[in-house]
Amino acid sequence: MTAFTPGRLDRSAAFYVAGHRGLVGSALWRRLAAEGFTNMVGRTSLELDLRNRSDVFAFFEKERPRYVAVAAAKVGGILANQTYPAEFLSENVQIQVNVLDAAQKYGVERLLFLGSSCIYPRLAPQPLKEEYLLTGPLEKTNEAYAIAKISGILQVQSVRRQYGLPWISAMPTNLYGPGDNFSKTGSHVLPALIRRFDEARAGEEASVTNWGTGAPRREFLHVDDLADACLYLLEHYDAAEHVNVGVGADLTIKDLAEMIAATVGYEGALEWDAAKPDGTPRKLMDVSKLESLGWSARIPLEEGIASTYAWFNANRNSFRN
After folding, report:
1. Which residues pair with 244 in a beta bridge?
2. E runs forming strands in 82-153
3. Is residue 24 a contact partner of residue 114, using CB atoms and an 8 Å limit?
4. Fewer beta carbons within 10 angstroms: which end of the chain, N or C?
5. How many other C-beta atoms lie within 10 A of the C-beta of residue 162?
6. Choosing from 16, 145, 237, 309, which is the catalytic residue?
7. How does DSSP classify residue 316?
8. Is the separation of the CB atoms in 90 and 74 below 8 Å?
């Protein structure tokens, strides 16, 4: 590999954010704009289907981005992952392979591939260290998505080894924030609870029943913190191993539910359906590697939930069912 030293990115260079309208991509777009990037490139899924290989290559040939962040993905919660495992595997692999192959062909200088904490084994020691990847069986409820993301990490590493390009990967923990998916069937736990408790409050429901036991522990990172970490890594990190991005602290789903209910103003009873799956018992990220590079999260969970609920209220008429 040719020598490369990370440093300040050229604010005038073309920077393609794949998935710039999604939760992560839109946050990164805002962060780049705030940092003075003037040549950001984005395409909606209607303008460019990243599953279409020839279209992706034609796009890269025309735009020739110098930097790329791969934030495009098919995502969802436990229900969606269990119901559509074939699509979660196939579509995510197609998106990744097409974008990464095109980026390699057209010489993208810096590329950041974003994955998920679900890449780690179901019963890996806590907190999750980067080296725990591929050391045990995955969580069955989202293994298809996890395999897709693992393949992306390995492709980035393979490109580094074979072509010498200084590409990197980052694995964020559970994300939330403005622009989240509040769909009843496709959302993750935090936005799902916000919508559920908001509707229960409006309907004056005496109780709300949530999936599982409430015992699993989860870590939550505000998407604006992730966006800040993405730019920081692009300017400060260059190595084959992926980097965990999180806050380094977690709480039970029961505690999360109570925090959200209080924020929303729902005062009814919280009940739990233990017949529904819990998923992985715990997924706490070890973020010591990222902190050693000089970055740490800044947005407290309670403050982040409050701002996310404010965004929810301002955009409630646009949510999918």
Report:
1. 171
2. 110-114
3. yes
4. C
5. 10
6. 145
7. G
8. no
Rg of the chain, C-alpha, whole Å: 19
Helix axes 189-202, 301-315, angle to 10 degrees: 60
Token pair 């705030």 is found at 34
**pLDDT, mean of residues 99-114:** 98
Rounded-to-5 percentages of helix, strand, coil across the chain? 45, 15, 40
CA dihedral 101, 103, 109, 114 (to 10 degrees): -80
pTM over 0.90: yes
Query: Are 17 and 25 contacting, i.e. CB atoms less than 8 angstroms apart?
Result: yes
For residues 242 and 170, what is the distance between their CA atoms, to the nearest angstrom? 5
145 is an active site residue: yes
Fold of 15-179+219-249+284-299: Rossmann fold (3.40.50)
| DSSP β-ladder status, 217-218 and 251-252 | antiparallel
The two tokens of residue 283 are: 């997924």
3-state SS class at 217: strand
Which of 14, 7, 27 shows the shortest CA–CA distance to 172?
A: 27
pLDDT digits (tens, 9 = 90+) for 208-232: 999 899 999 999 999 999 999 999 9
Q: Produce one character per residue of 14-42: b if its CB has 16 or more CB atoms within 10 Å, e if not.
A: bbbbbbbebbbbbbbbbbbeeeebebbbb
Q: Are 259 and 301 in contact (CB under 8 A)?
A: yes
